Structure formats: structure tokens, C-alpha cells
Amino acid sequence: MSLNHEFDVLIVGGGPAGIAAATCAAKSGLRVGMVDDNPSAGGQIWRGEQSRPGSRIAAQWLHQLEGSSVDWIGGAKVTHQPAKGVLNAETFDELHILAYDKLILANGARERFLPFPGWTLPNVMGAGGLQALVKSGMPIRGKQVVVAGSGPLLLAVAAYLRMKGAVIRLMAEQADWMGLFGFGVSLWKYPGKLIGAVALKRDLSGVPYLTGCWPLAAKGREKLESVTLQHGKKVIVESCDYLACGFNIVPNLELALLLGCRIEENSVWVNEWQESSVEGIFCAGETTGVGGLELSLIEGQIAGYAAVGRHQEAGCLFRKRQRFRTFSTLLRESFHLRDELKWLSAPETIVCRCEDVTFDSLRRFGSWRDAKLQTRCGMGSCQGRICGTATQFLFGWGMESVRPPIFPARLSSFVEMPEVSDSR
Question: Strand 267-268 vs strand 263-264: parallel, antiparallel, or unpaired?
């Protein structure tokens, strides 16, 4: 079954940036639609936040969205572009054909995973992935958890899991102490973030927080039983039920690449109005560079206003945006990944989990394209979303092209061509 939709402005992504963009665009009275692969708006960061105390910002924006004229299409993955100005999105049993005049990409970011011996064991999970499962109802009370990797996300995940009853054995941050000290000192310029950091510190009171520490191996017979970590010159072994691990987050660029948007420094290039190199396609949030909640909301508002021609309102947010872009640079520099992480894998360690391609099989090639041709690396169901970002860090490879569909799709979706009325 297929459903046709026509919008003046279409937003892809239902997280904070997409919500801000949609609500601002809808103030124009034009037809605005939003599509996301989650059944409800909020994205990963605001999943289930409406009912939690202290979630005032989330509640305010979600309330604005609910009170607007935005047409919400949930549980739908955008798979490809059958024609210019048209996107196809699939739900479990429906095809949505989405025609638009202006497009705003706010499809966020994902965790970067780096391979090490044992990382494919059951109960070794992405930090955000484990958090999402717990938010969806998976019991974690009483379970022993090690949180490792890099970035502020680790703190938020650890605090959430502890609140849900998990026992956080330790937190391992690969960045060194001096870099983090400079980051902490700089937070005085951002009072909201400083307050948030103090709250997290309070929530994690008593949990060991080790800097310059990273996982070397996960071990267990049928599932995870312990994790071995490097801490300075020492090697430590910690028993646990779960390892929540992630090495920063990286933008989701597949759709932007498919549509021809220019990519610079692993993010979508945009002008002052958040418009990409392709006319009529705007980008906001983590797709333009990882910078946190505040920057995502500001960029979303600018993109929403600019897409409907309300440039004066968009321009009023420029100075505020620059302030948080400076924070984004600080974030990137403070949590820069160390070179030692490139050599965690043993020769037999699997890098591409979909196609069972090992580290030793990959390091003989000079490019992502050659590796795909010879080993099928990146050609599985995740389509390189996990191994692609890993090999980018490990070998310096770049994604040279994106071909539709960007998610697995039904063959019937390629047969049904859009019918767009002249009224657009």
C-alpha cells in the first residue's frame, strides 16, 4: 500500500533539530511534514523524556510540535530518491511517497564503534544502544555495567543506567586528564552545560572515573563476563554483565550524500541560513557537525525559518549559534581519539560484523572501494554504518559513494513511481 504526500517543507528527522525546524516552519502556515524512523518524536536524546521530571526543555518543544499543524509520519525510514523533489519512506507495511519544495535534513548522528577482541560478544553494546533498550523496558536493575569509550554521552548514559538500578562498576574515558581539565574549565562560559555537568557528577557520585583508559578486550564463554582495560601503564580486569561502549558520535550523512550535498570534515557544509550546496536542501543538528542539544535546537530554528523565507527571524539567532559552534570545536578537540585505539584489533578480530570481514583481511587494501570489492566489507544489512566509520578511523578511508537504497527496502518501493500534482 502506498500513500502520497505533498509538502512545502519536509523535515527528515524527529529529534531536537527536526522538531525545532518543523515548529518554526509551520508558523508560516505552509504545509509542513516530518518523517522519522521512530514511532514518536524526540529522537534518541528525548526518547521517553516527556514523563521525566526535569525535562522542561523537551516538554516545551514537544508540546509546541503537538500544537502545530505539522504532519507527523512515524516509524518510516527514508530509503531513496525516486525523482527530484521526492523521497520514498517505508514503514512495516506501507510506502510513503513524499513530495516537497524545500527539504530540511535533521537526521542526527550515531555512535562510532571501534573493534577490539571480543567486541562481538553478547552484552557488549553501544552506550546509546544500551540506554535505548533500557528506555524501551529492558530490565537493568542489579546488573554490573562498565561504561567505556569517549565523549560526554558516556556520562549521560551511566547516570541514566544508575538511575534505573544498574551498578556502574567504572567509567573509562580514553581522553587524557589534561584535555578534560581544560574542557571542564571552559564550561564556565556555558552556564547551562556547567549546571548539567555538576548534576551528572552528583548522580555518579562514588563511581570510579578513569581517564586515559580504554578497553583492550571483552571476555566470556557464551556472553560477556569481564572486560580488560588499559589504564596508563597498568592493565586492569573488571567483571561485568554489560559493557556499554562508544567512541564519540558521527553524523548520519548517507541521505545528504545521496542527494548530492557537499561534505566537508565529515559533516554537511551549510551556509549562514543552514542551506546546503544543493539549493532548497537545508541541514540542521548533528549532520552539520556534532555540537550538542543547544546547537541542534538553534540550527533547527534557523533552518525552519529560512526554508519558509522568514530570514529576519533566522538572522536573530546567528550570534547564539556561533557561541555554541565554538563549544562544538572545544568538544571535538577535548575528546579527540588517541592513535593507540587504531591497534586494538587482533588479526582475526571481525571489523565488518554483517559480512564477517576481519582486521587482517582489510589492512592489505588502500581504500574503502577496494575493500568492498574484494571482501564485501560494508555491503551487509547495516550498509557500512558500523564498519564504515570504524575503517575511516582505522585506515583513513572515506565513503566514496552512496547508492540507493540507504536502508534495506522492498522491491515494490522501486516499482511505484510518484505522481505529483501540478498544484505544487
Answer: antiparallel
